[in-house]
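agent> fetching stored inputs for the methionine sulfoxide docking request
agent> found them:
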Amino acid sequence: MSSHDEVLATIRQQIDNEPDATGAMTIAVGTLKKAMTHYSWVGIYLLDGNELVLGPFEGKPSPHTHIPLGRGICGAAAAEKATIIVDDVNADPRYLACSVDTQSEIVVPILKGSDVLGEIDIDSDRRAAFGAADKKMLEAVAALLAERMTPTLSA
Ligand code: SME
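agent> prediction call returned; pasting tokens
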């Protein structure tokens, strides 16, 4: 198993008995930050109306606690409902700086059907730190969180 698979399996196991969405998000953020050494800042933004509001995070406090839809790489990923990887944030005009040390970023929407509930945002101090394995793992984590972020309907 690759380390990405192992980290996903760990998160799945840890949140298995955590029905609370905020609890599950906090666990996922903590495990990702600890397990992936090149993840310098890990956070989850939650969609509230037309704004992304910062929820659980690990790393330096971000100046961007509220991001309007369509602003920043975070807003773009929510608007496009698709994962965005930026290899060099300083070359992307959409980028809203969180830390001067950040070089690359991945933003993964948390989707329920076609509704955006929030997103996982990760910064790295390394250029081009994120690839297909990160995207696959983080999209799986987002799906696990989405399951807990809206009530399960039962017949
Ligand atoms: N870089 C993000 C803003 C959030 S901070 O990275 C935590 C963006 O461009 O949307």
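agent> quick read of the result: Residues 4-149 form a domain with the Beta-Lactamase fold (CATH 3.30.450.40).
agent> awaiting further instructions
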